[in-house]
Amino acid sequence: MALNKKIAIPLMVIILASAAGGGWLLWHKKQPGTAADQKTAQGKQLYTCSMHPFIIKDKPGTCPICGMELIKKIESATDGAAMTAEQKQQADMLGHVSLSPTQRVMANVATVEVRQQSLNKEINAVGIVQFDQSRQAKVTAWIAGRIDKLNVSTVGAYVSKNRPVAEVYSPDLMSTQQEYLLAIKSRDQLKNSPIPSISQNGEGLVASAKQRLMLFGVKESQIAALEKAGKPNIRLPIYTPLSGIVIEKMVQQGQYVNTGDVLFSIADLSTVWVEVEVYENEFPNIHIGQQVEIRSQSFPGKPFTGRVAFIYPFLDPKTRTVKARVAMPNPGMKLKPDMFVNAIIKVPLGSAIVVPVTAVMDTGKRRVAWVESSPGMFEPRDVQVGQQTDDKIQILSGLKPGDKVAVSGGYLIDSESQLKGGAGQDHSKHTGGKPATMGQSPAADPQPPGGHEGHGAPPARNDSLKMDDMKM
């Protein structure tokens, strides 16, 4: 009996050990993560769903959840092995979006060809009409006296430099005229003197008296008339230095004035200035001589044209603007001083690669345009932009003439790329996630924008869904 126990116990231990070892081997072979399975899987091409990356199959087909076409799965080369040419091609397709003709219509995707053309930038600014300071003058009293006659009685009246605006009586002017007449008589009497110094002295007296009259504002023509008449004028006519509109009137008839007192302010409104305020980020494009179009609400549809005559060398710290002076003719005096106007400054930028503004998406970190690389296939392209007009933008790099870019529906394409790129993809990087090529089952009809953007309607759930297809 003792002998049987000695034989039975080791025999039971051997049987149990064999059973445990066979069970462990059987379980190990069934595990998908074993080295043998991994080695076998590396020799096969696996397929996955871009919307449900946990679905993995070893042959092409449709996703059992959403019904979309499976795409080739790219394994990361963690063991240091190089990617195959086909895997590199798949990696290059990351971020691409494929749209069928029906989806393009429903998503309202339109493309235009990139062209190189002349670009003109328009700077819109506001301005105020001002007097032309080079055509302003003041009429002053050159001698103290009394305004005996006033030919201009109201502000706004038109005056001419050939017609007197007032007449002044001055005792000093009367005595100076009499001195001039006496000097003429003395010159006539002394000019026949045999003594040269005496005859020359007569000419000196006339010249001195004439100089005093001119300092009182008497013109050469008035002095000639005085000499011809032989008697002094009681009232001296006062003329304006230029023709224009009276903008200020400071005297009344009968008023006494002193030397230097201002009688009138005159402005010639045949030409005016428009002071345009340009923001500091735009004034580098402003240059002297540029053509400017002026529009006023008082005359809709009738633009005025002028040119930049001066750019002020300082900046307004409150409005952060620089003023540019536009000199322009004012036919019919339609533009009134202190009138608000709109200015359009045209800046030629030369020939450049130009696309519509809607073709460029600003993600905050970069600017992207969706280029149709092949019919129905769109790829993101980083671009650098330059100047921008109302509806066009200059492309410095990233696009070339002949490329076709999406000008509408670009945000829907971008949304499709983000959804296909997998969860957690950085929205500012269009090529950092899963492949974004879009597949769709033949039975699926695309939905219009506003639902699931750019996707087809989900088909009926496939009953052949198996847990073995899911690799968690």
Question: Main traits of this protein?
Answer:
plasmid, membrane, 24% helix, alpha+beta, single chain, 8 helices, Efflux transporter, RND family, MFP subunit, Beta-barrel_RND_2, 472 residues, four-stranded antiparallel β-sheet, Elongation Factor Tu (Ef-tu), domain 3, OB fold (Dihydrolipoamide Acetyltransferase, E2P), cadmium resistance
How is this structure best described in words?
- This protein is of the alpha+beta class and 472 residues long.
- Among the domains are: 122-132 and 269-348, Efflux pump adaptor protein, beta barrel domain (Elongation Factor Tu (Ef-tu), domain 3, Beta Barrel); 138-267, RNA polymerase II/Efflux pump adaptor protein, barrel-sandwich hybrid domain (OB fold (Dihydrolipoamide Acetyltransferase, E2P), Beta Barrel).
- Helices cover 24% and strands 31% of the residues.
- It has 8 helices and 24 strands.
- The protein has helices spanning 2-30, 35-42, 85-92, 101-106, 171-190, 196-215, 220-229, 410-420, and strands at residues 47-48, 56-57, 71-72, 97-98, 110-113, 115-131, 136-140, 145-150, 158-159, 166-169, 235-238, 244-249, 256-257, 262-267, 271-279, 291-295, 304-311, 321-329, 340-356, 361-362, 367-374, 377-388, 392-397, 404-408.
- The strands form 5 sheets. The chain has a 6-stranded antiparallel barrel with strand order 6-15-18-17-16-19. Strands 7-14-12-9 form a 4-stranded antiparallel β-sheet, with no helix packed on it. It has a 4-stranded antiparallel β-sheet with strand order 11-10-8-13.
- A hairpin with a 7-residue loop joins strand 1 (47-48) and strand 2 (56-57).
- Helix 5 packs antiparallel against helix 6 (196-215).
- The chain is rod-shaped and about 180 Å long.
- The two termini are 57 Å apart.
- Residues 203-232 form the CusB-like three alpha-helical bundle domain.
- CzcA and CzcB together would act in zinc efflux nearly as effectively as the complete czc efflux system (CzcABC). The CzcB protein is thought to funnel zinc cations to the CzcA transport protein.
